[in-house]
Structures are given as structure tokens and as C-alpha cells.
Amino acid sequence: MKRLFTPLMLIVFSFGLNAQHNKVIDRIIEIGTTDNRTMDHLDVVSNRFGGRLVGSDAYENAAEWCASQFRKWGMEVIMDEAGTVPVGFNRGPWFGRMLSDNGMVLHFATPSYTAGTKGVQRGHVLPEPKSKEEFDRMKGALKGAWVLIGGKNNGWPIDWSALADSARAKTIAYNDSVAKINRGIMRENMKNRTDPPKDLHPLKEEPALFYREMCEAGILGVIQSSEVPIRALYDRKNIDRMTFETLPTVCDIKLDEDQYEVIAEMARERQYFLLEFDIRNHFKPGPVKYHNVIGVIKGSKYPNEYVMLGGHLDAFDVATGGVDDGSGLSPAMEVARLIKDAGGKPERTILACLWAGEEFGLLGSKHWVESNPEKMPKISAYFNRDGGPTPIMGITVPEAMYDDFEKLNKSLNSINSDFPFTLKKRTDQPRPRPKSAGGSDHAYFAMNGVPTLRFDEPDTKGHNFNYGEIWHTERDTYDKSIAEYQEHTSVVTAVIVYGLANLDHLLLREGLYADD
User: Fold this and answer.
1) CB 152 within 8 A of CB 226
2) CATH 3.40.630.10 placement within the chain
3) 126: exposed, middle or buried (C-beta count within 10 Å: 0-12, 13-18, 19+)?
4) Assuming Cys at both sites, which of 43, 149, 339, 502 could form a disulfide with 207, CB separation 3.0 to 4.6 Å?
5) Which CATH superfamily is domain 22-87+287-501 in?
6) 57 near 47, Cβ under 8 Å?
7) Of 429, 403, 344, whose CA–CA distance to 28 is shortest?
8) Is the peptide bond between 229 and the residue preceding it cis, with omega within 30 degrees of 0?
9) pLDDT digit string (tens) for 367-389?
10) How far apart, in whole angstroms, are the C-alpha atoms of residue 238 and residue 235?
11) CA-to-CA distance for 75 and 351, rounded, in angstroms?
12) Of 326, 239, 322, 250, which is closest to residue 281 (Cα–Cα)?
């Protein structure tokens, strides 16, 4: 009889634990459907702090606030120092207008870590020189001018590094040699006017070909045509070598393409008009540290095994990061709050990760993965959200994981009948484990064999969401996130994360990657 007692007690204990965990899941769903605060978190990070660029006060303040919320909910917090930038950058307001008989307010933006104006600055407008001959002819007029440059804005500023100067010098030399040949052709065409004219050789086109020379001549800034919505990134080519003594000094303006064409035509006609800009791009001495913010719900039985979820906290500051990646970080925060408020005591440790520097090259998640190699085999799954505010409605998993997810299906389909959850087995052949990073913060986890499972997230109610319209542009704002999708996503993620954290085993990786 004594021998039967221990197994019986284990069965009763195990049943009790399962019942307790089911009650927590029910409570997560109840709170998540009656008192969901996902959009409250998003409101704070996008509207109170704004664009959270690494190196900015907004990023630091947002990181501290998110950490304070995790602590408020009873979680441990790891402020993981992931790196530094040599100088900081804070964006203020900006304004521009054309001063003429048909004047207009200008629609434009500037990439981060580029120069602002020295107060309100007015200047005339010139098209950029395309050859040395053109530059020499107009160099005196460049002082105090806004210069229209060629090409189309892709978000990046003009590269002012020594390497870029060297490349431009080679193009200038090539164009000078072509111009010399063309002058000979033009003379020959003039002499032989009865013959069909010979074609001139094309010059190589490069925006701001005489950038260094124009800066030395005293231009106020360069202006490039941009599609709308305007995309503005950061100075990736020069940021690592910036010091507070060697900051950029010339504005780099990306202007609405329609307005650009009006101004370019007026400049070609040599009409008299002025452009006026007030651009408050501010720097601060560095180095400036940036941190991952990681909320920890400690596992009661397997504290050294993990279920992880996350999104990136940083965002470009041309807007407020309401979608990229406010739509990822706010559900991650709400998942943590729901589990804690529901009384969750997971058996496996849950890490809610708000990553730094994703927009600068996955810096925060890369740092964490490379600093914690011993944890990689012990991570049951990492769920990353960085694709927009659409709802989680399904997942496809390898056969080895299917039964574990199926245990959660009933709960997932009880959340909201508008968003039924579909679980599928993978039928195609597994792909090789990725060898290089890309995409988002799941990348370095996947490279190390961690399951980084993707949800099916359709715009099922037809909100006409278009990620391309918002991605890295001035339209990445709070109002572009879709509340009912975001709130549902938080509840689904919380149920899945909590359920996986209470399995008696890590998710099996069989069939996940072809080479494992």
C-alpha cells in the first residue's frame, strides 16, 4: 500500500497543477477581453515619448518607463546594456516654406543624425552642378543656397564619408574625360551642320556629385525628391565615426516630389524666389548607452528553461513608431501584465523582451543571443512580432510540436469568435537553419536553432492595412495600429506563452530545420 501512495499522490498533484494552470488561462482570457490595456501601452510609448531612436532621450525615457511597468506588475527586470552610439540625437519640430508669389508650405523630412538649421534660414535655389566646368562656373553663387540634387529619396542621407568622397572623385574624373570628348563632338557637329549630328556620350549620374566642394562653398543644404509618404532613416554610413566635434553641418532634406518638381522648374527658369527652413535636429555628447528591457516571470519548476516573446522598442523618429514596432512591443507588455494579473505561476521562465537597436541592425537581440549561448538549447520557443497590427489567427508547426499546441486550441477558440484560431501541421520539407541574419529580432535565435514560430496574421476584417505605406515613413503613428487586432493578439499570445511554459518538456525541435 505504501508503494502505491507516492504515484497516487503524484497523479493528484499533477491534476491539481493542471487545473490551476487552466484557471489561470481562463482568467487571462477574462481580463484580456474585459480590461485589455494594449493600446494604453502603445499610447504612452508612441504619443508621450514619440520616435524612440537609439541614442535619443525618447528611447531612454521609454526604456525606463517600460521597466517601471514590469516592476509594477511584480516582475523582475533586466536592463541589458547592449551597446553605445558615439553621439546622441534628438529630433525637434521642423518647418519649411517657399517665399514667392505662389508660395507654399513645404512637406519634407530629414534623416536622423543629420544637421538642422541655425534657426530660420532663407536662401536661393540652384540645381546641382553635374561637371567640374559647371561647378567652377557657379561656385560663387553656391554660398547661402539650397541645392536641388538628383535621384530619388530611399530614406538614407547623402554619404559624406572619406570613402564616398573618393568614389565621387573617380566619377568626377570620368565625367571630365567624357566632357572633353563631348566638346570635340560638339565642335565637329558645328563644322558639319549638313551631316546628321553625332550623339554625345552620357555622363555618370550621381546625386550630390560635388557634395564636398558645395559644402566648402557654403551651401545651406541639399534637397532631394521623395515619394510620399516620406521615408527618413539615419546616417548609417557615418554614425560610428561621428564625434561631437565632427558632426554634419549641412541639411539633407527629402522633399515631396510634387513640390520638388515645381521648385525645380522655377529654378531652371531662373525665377527669383527663396526657400525658408527651420529644422531642429539636435545632438548630444556621447557615448550614449542603449539597453534591452527584459521582463522576467520566473519559472517555478524549470527556472533555467524559457519561453520568450518580444518586439523592438526602438523606432525611427520621423514619426512615432506606432506600428514599427509599437504593434509588437505593446502586446509583449500586455502579455506580461495579463499573466501576472491572472495569478500565473509558470513552471518555465517567461521572458518578455523589448529589444534595442533593431533598426540599426538587430543590435539588441544579437547582443543578448551572443551573450547567452548556454540558454539557446533551453529556449522552448521565441515569438517575435514586427509585421504590423494584424490579428493572430493560426500557426503551422512541425508534427513533433502539433500535440502540444493542440492542447491550447480550445482555449484559443474561446477568446473571440470573430478570430477563430487554426492549427496546422507543416507538410512541406523543413528548410535549412539560416546562416545569416535578416528581417527582425528572431533572426539570431533562428540561427542558433531556437524555434521562432510565425503566426498567421491576416487582415481578416478588411481594415486595408498596408505595411509598405507605414514602414519607416512619416505615417508610422499610433492611429495606424488597429485596436481590436492588437488586443486579440495580446490575449492569444498570453495563452500560448503561458501554456507552453507549463508543458512537462521543451517543444521538440524535430523537423524544425532540415540540418538539425
Assistant:
1) yes
2) 22-87+287-501
3) middle
4) 149
5) Zn peptidases (3.40.630.10)
6) no
7) 344
8) yes
9) 999 999 999 999 999 999 999 99
10) 6
11) 10
12) 250
Tell whether the model's pLDDT for residue 13 goes beyond 50. no
User: What does the pLDDT look like over 121-143, one tens digit per residue?
Assistant: 999 999 999 889 899 999 999 99
CATH 3.50.30 placement within the chain: 104-272
The 3-state DSSP class for residue 113 equals coil
Angstrom distance (rounded) from CA 473 to CA 377: 38
**What is the per-residue pLDDT across 321-371, written as a single tens digit (0 to 9) for each?**
999 999 999 999 999 999 999 999 999 999 999 999 999 999 999 999 999
Q: Which set of grid coordinates corresponds to residue 94? A: 521642423
- Report which DSSP code applies to 90: E
Q: Extract long-range pairs of 16-19: CB within 8 Å, 24+ residues apart.
A: 17/502
CB 275 within 8 A of CB 263: yes
Query: Would you say 380 and 451 are in contact if contact means Cβ atoms under 8 Å apart?
Result: yes
CA-closest candidate to residue 353, choices 78, 117, 91: 78
Residues 308/299, Cβ–Cβ less than 8 Å = no
Amino acid 515: pLDDT: 74
CATH of the domain spanning 104-272: 3.50.30
Mean pLDDT, the chain, rounded, equals 95
Q: Each residue of 314-340: b (16+ CB within 10 Å) or e?
A: bbbbbbbbbbbbbbbbbbbbbbbbbbb
Burial-class residue 476 by CB neighbours within 10 Å (0-12, 13-18, 19+): buried
> Which one, of 392, 348, 384, lies nearest residue 364 by Cα?
384
The x, y and z cell numbers of residue 28, run together, are 487571462
Provide, rounded to the nearest whole percent, the portion of the chain with pLDDT above 70.
Answer: 97
Share of the chain above pLDDT 90, in %: 88
